[in-house]
Amino acid sequence: MDSLDDYQIPYGLMAEFDTPAGVMHAAEKVRDEGFTRWDVHTPFPVHGMDDAMGLKNSQVGWFTFFCGLCGFFGGMLMIWYMNAYDYGIPVGGKPNFSPFASFPVAYEMTILSGAFGSLLGMLYLNRLPRLHHPLLKNMRFADVTHDKFFVVIEADDPKYDEEETRKLLKKTGSKHIELVNE
Amino acid sequence: MTAKKKASTKKPEPETGLSAWVKLPLALILIGVVIAIVAIAIGEKTHLAHAWLVSFMFYLSICLGGFFLVLLHYLLDTHWIVPIRRIAEHLASLLPLLAVLFVPIAIYSGSEFVTISSGAEASEQEKKNNAIKAEKKAAEVHGEKVVFKDGQADHDAHSSDGPRAFYSWMQSEKDYKETGETHDHAWYAKRAYLSTGFWHIRWVLCFVIWGVFTWLMRKHSLAQDSDGDAKWTGYNRKLAAAGIFVFAATLTIGAIDWMKGLEHQWFSTMYGVYYFAGSVWVSLITIYVIALRLKTHGPLKDVVQKKTLKDNATLFFAFTVFYAYIHFSQYFLIWNASIPEETFWYVKREQGPWWWVGMLIIFGHFFVPFLALLRQDVKVRSEVMITVAVLAWFIHFCDMSYNIMPLIHESSGWMKLIWIDLGCLLFMGGCLSIAFIYFFKKHPPYPQRDPRIAETMGVYIKLHSEAKVAGK
Q: pTM of the entire structure?
């Protein structure tokens, strides 16, 4: 054992592509092979990538929806409690509480809570925050913020086999395939 | 309204015997005419006139929505709409033809034939009770002091002594010209705008402007089909830049003059945008259904993509929220200010069946479509979208009725005569379907050589730089 690399655990195989079309076709092939733990990295959003990767509808919407709902009724409850129940404020002969008058504020509360729900739900589902990611130490991967496109298949995917997966990625037309360690 | 859709969408199979699809609109027209004759025969002239207006405003909104989408495409250079733009262009090009359907309204706008009792089954006593109820309701809203000022009082005065004019302010104007005095303060204060001559100039101008813009833009679009020159897109962009302002102004004038003008005592700064929001909403879903039909059974099979429909539905979803926001704002401002000359409009619409129609609009125009379309994947599920479309047409019809019908049916009566409304809808739907089918058959079904057609069909064209990389 003379190199530190011998002790390292493989994170996954990284394949580099030059064009969005190239990475899109590669993603379709990887999807059809039935991989589950893999991802595509691009410098900008590529339309149609969700389908190419076989991604389902994001779950974030549920966080948004339920937090929004809580915000709406929480807002209504707050206004009713403050302006009608705890300390009634009569204005212009109108009822102390009315859903019409309260609506704009409750609506703002919906947006606020919905936004928090989206952000926190997204972070939770992405297992963020995390301080480090194995791909980040790869110098070649830095080009993902510039003009290169990557498909990364993780080593703990049940279908992962270093030789076979490498062959698959080669077949998709990648010119540079590299094993990334943890 | 669904019938109209069927007629216009089933059209694109000329080879499978198009005579059947030409016959359907004719049948609709025939049914409409029969219903109209029956309505006149039993003396429901008042209801027929208002039903005609409801129906006219209904189809006007679909056509104006199409016009707006064409403008939107050229202004923002959006590619998603390209496959279905021809549908929007044809809908927009129906606008000048709508002038023909408007002529009866223009002719009878000032004639005094509107009687409130006819049509309404309510007895005088019932009407009085309703008036008292309205007053009580208003009393609750305003505190104890209720003064029905100008507007309401005048309106009652008119409705009680015999037939009044279709647009009652025209009567006030006539009386003023004859006697030199008026008790209609609301009209007097607004007389600079509400003058019969000016009104006629305005509607003629509206239709002329719509005709020029829509036909010119479609002409350019069709010219591009034959020569593929990008300059046509450039021409249309310039037209659209001016057109969007013209569109905003003419739509507002149309909504105010023809619908809001029925109750000229009222104030609402939201009215134009309120009609606009409903228009684009119902137009988007109409185009969706036509596009869906043409995709599954017709020439747009490979042109309209899943994402085209999805984007279409997304915009519809956005307008669901926009409409709710606008209509809520209108109600909220009036509720909050609580000024009698504004609140009377909504007080009237909380009587009898109109309360429930209002509820229907709140739920059917917002909550149901909003919650139904919240998920992404539903937006391309045809069974859901067609259900939503049927709902949307029905609700938009209710929305138009909600604006127009409470004038002559304060309590009951509307539901019993709704077959007349249906007749008008069928008649106009039939007429417009014939024109739409004619347009569609005559011209290519989609902008074949639009600069963005490849992009929107998902054909990936290699950039120059990419071609170089790939070639090496």
A: 0.82
Write the pLDDT tens digit of every residue in A19-31: 999 999 999 999 9
CB-closest option in A65, A92, A100 to B143:
A92
Residues 6+ apart with CB under 8 A from B420: B35, B36, B39, B44, B47, B48, B51
The upper half-sphere exposure of residue A74, i.e. CA atoms within 13 Å in the direction of its Cβ, equals 13
- Greater model confidence, B245 or B457: B245
Chain A residues closer than 8 Å to B469 by CB = 18-19
Query: From the CA of A182, how many Å to the nearest CA of chain B?
Result: 32
Residues A169, A153 contacting (CB under 8 angstroms) = yes
Q: State the distance between the two ends of chain B, measured CA to CA, in whole angstroms.
A: 59
Identify which of A92, A103, A104 has the shortest CB distance to residue B338. Answer: A92
Q: Has residue B259 got a pLDDT over 70? A: yes
CA distance B157 to B136: 19
More confident residue, A57 or B194: B194
Chain A partners of B374 at a C-beta cutoff of 8 Å?
A: 61, 65
Across the interface, whether the CB atoms of A19 and B470 are under 8 A apart is answered yes
pLDDT score, position B209: 96
User: Which residues are CB-contacts of B175 (< 8 A; sequence separation ≥ 6)?
Assistant: B182, B184
CB burial of residue B297 (10 Å; 0-12, 13-18, 19+)? middle
Tokens of B5: 């859709």
- Asked if pLDDT for residue B144 goes beyond 50, the answer is no
Please report the domains of chain A, with CATH numbers, ordered by start residue: 8-43+149-182 (3.30.70.100), 60-125 (no CATH)
Are B432 and B4 in contact by the 8 Å Cβ rule? The answer is yes
ipTM of the complex: 0.72
Chain B residues whose beta carbon lies within 8 Å of the beta carbon of residue A61: 374-375
Distance CA A154, CA A14 (A): 9
Confidence of residue A72 (pLDDT cuts 50, 70, 90): very high
Strand locations in B83-181 (E): 112-114, 164-165
Q: A19 and B143 in contact by Cβ < 8 A?
A: no
* CA-based nearest residue to A38, from A175, A160, A122, A120: A160
Tell me whether residues B377 and A57 touch, CB distance under 8 A.
yes
Residues of B in CB contact (< 8 Å) with A are 141-144, 328, 331-332, 335-336, 338, 374-377, 458, 460, 462, 466, 469-470
Give Cα A96 to chain centroid, integer Å: 44
pLDDT of residue B455: 82
- CA B322/CA B303 separation, integer angstroms: 29
Strand pairing category for A10-17 and A38-41: unpaired
> What's the rounded mean pLDDT across residues B148-165?
55
